[in-house]
Amino acid sequence: MKTVKAAEAPDTTSQVSADDLLVALTVARSGSFNAAAGILGVTHTTVSRRVSNLEKALRSRVFVRASEGWVPTETGQTVITAAEEIERALGRLGQTGQVATVVRVGAPDGLSSFCVAPAMARLARERPQFSFELISATRSWRQTRSDLDIEIVIGRPEVNNRADMVHVRDYSLALYATEAYLQEHGEPESLLDLTNHTVIYYIDSALQVDDLDKATDLLPQSAKAIRSTSVHVHVQSTVASAGIGLLPDYLAEREPGLRPVLHHQFRHPLSYWAVIRRDSYRNPMVQLALREIMREAASGAVPRSTP
Taking a C-beta distance cutoff of 8 angstroms, is the pair 32, 279 a contact? Predict the structure, then answer.
């Protein structure tokens, strides 16, 4: 952590609030007042006021702006050391009075329920000061979107120099149906036979991800269709024998009533990638959240083999 010199601070620590110290610690870790406000679940004005309170009490600047964001002065480094001691002491006492950390994660709805929610729930149980917000949305990454600490998208994104990306896991879209549906409507022997079946997938006009749109390029136009913006509706409609679903393999393989259809003729490989803003990644809880998500993704059920 870079440190910038400032005037010596007088010994006025009796006026310093522990809460203000912990807010300053969050600013130092994130390098941004806005990022700290997002982590703490408060406004930018609140963070600014807390830091100003410290500076008035210490009669010295705590942070100065640098090319990489807000960095602590020498006085600020003393503040950070004291705040870390408070944080450790609260942790040893099992206190939940630490400044709450809010990590905001965005992910497609399938992966949200399969991987992200279990990982975040486990972390929330283990770390009482941890809170999370999960935005479930199937969309492409946008450089202008800065409200998320971690955003998981389908397909490898093009990121700018303010963000990093990491591969989360691979999966495939494949065709599935129930035995009841196939007995009633017959089992297709080729992709062309799908023209006589109901195919369950996304609403074309609502798709925001090119890789999902490309999945239907090799499939013929079906006579009937069931369309939804939710992958969970796709799965449950298929389980209810409403048609043949074009489904993520990691979700379909968890449903004992579904079996692959035309699996030797069609499989559309895809991958999930996590994009992390660099200012967010300075926050240890964001780092921990990403590790938990990656761990959950790696330990997820492996699709059963098909003959």
Answer: yes
